[in-house]
Specification:
46% of the residues are buried. The strands form 2 sheets. A 9-stranded mixed beta sheet has the order 6-5-4-3-2-1-14-15-16. It has a 7-stranded mixed beta sheet with strand order 7-8-9-10-11-12-13. α4 packs across α6. The C terminus is likely disordered. It contains 7 helices and 16 strands. By secondary structure, the chain is of the alpha/beta class. The chain is 20% helix and 29% strand. The chain is globular, with a radius of gyration of 18 Å.
């Protein structure tokens, strides 16, 4: 499985020199599995992903699968700018797990944001074949050779974490979640059990979370590197990738946070826009490789 980060920022996109290295686009992660492209969330990062996919495909039609963790603004705002959805002959399957009978349908939410007065072009302008799927948490989905399932996590208005399995390897995409460091939720731990990679929302520092030097972030639905490390340790995760960075955390702040997080859990890396991770085949003994921006080489993390 090949993982490419197209957006790693939470809440609102940030552009400028201060966030150049880690990136400013809101959440979008692509997982390539044996010719299938699995996309997680449609923040502003999905615009460039769509351009890359179209360029790589040439004239060949695309079959894509888009999985939503939840439907808050920063996770859907790039959808109207997703180029492949406008191309006849392409197909986009959209997957969403409802948090209850009263929660909105994904098609309704995506359509609403593309209506006046907030957007000039309606979803009907998307000429690709769009298929919308509402599923239950825990339901298993098969896309090509990959198997996916999800579990609910604690976030205002509901959210799910996704697990992708392929040929004995697994990764978990767990964004927008909140829990205590000393009591990781059993359902989340089980979803992450034995995964090579856990992409985890660590938006706040532990001090920010409890309100030292500013307002408390308790109840806002996000985690810290400490809560991520607790899940990784309880589930036997090999590599923890911090994600959904606070828009106020510039590159220098993120460098310091990365160093601090590695002292808590040695197998920690920090997501950066454009970063590529390879989750190894069984013959690679579960090794994870990622693109090192400084050297443009592949670095192995055992």
């Amino acid at each position: 499985m090949r993982v490419v980060f197209h957006g790693v920022r939470g809440s609102i996109a940030t552009a400028g020199e201060a966030t150049r290295r880690y990136g400013g686009n809101t959440p979008c992660v692509a997982v390539e599995v044996e010719g299938s492209t699995l996309i997680f969330d449609a923040g502003t990062g999905i615009r460039k992903l769509g351009s890359d996919l179209t360029r790589a495909s040439g004239l060949a039609p695309l079959a894509l699968n888009l999985f939503f963790s939840h439907l808050h603004w920063d996770h859907i705002q790039g959808f109207p700018f997703f180029g492949p959805a406008y191309v006849p002959g392409n197909r986009v399957d959209v997957w969403h797990a409802r948090s209850g009978a009263e929660s909105p349908l994904v098609r309704e939410v995506l359509s609403e944001q593309m209506r006046p007065p907030t957007f000039p072009v309606g979803i009907e302008a998307m000429r690709a074949e769009l298929a919308f799927h509402e599923i239950d948490a825990g339901q298993t989905i098969r896309v090509g050779e990959a198997r996916l399932r999800c579990a609910p996590v604690d976030h205002p208005n509901g959210c799910v974490a996704w697990r992708v399995e392929h040929r004995g390897r697994a990764l978990v995409y767990a964004t927008d979640l909140e829990h205590d460091a000393d009591q990781p939720p059993p359902e989340l731990v089980e979803l992450c059990r034995g995964a090579e990679l856990l992409i985890y929302d660590a938006m706040y520092t532990p001090e920010e979370y409890v309100g030292i030097g500013g307002p408390s972030r308790r109840g806002w639905g996000h985690g810290t590197f400490e809560t991520g490390a607790a899940v990784a340790e309880a589930a036997g995760v090999r590599t923890l990738c911090l994600f959904h960075h606070d828009p106020n955390h510039d590159d220098g702040f993120m460098d310091a946070l990365a160093a601090r997080a590695r002292r808590r859990f040695a197998g920690t890396i920090v997501a950066a826009e454009g970063m590529v991770l390879d989750v190894g085949e069984p013959a690679q003994a579960g090794r994870l490789r990622w693109q090192d921006e400084a050297s443009h080489g592949l670095v192995a993390h055992g």
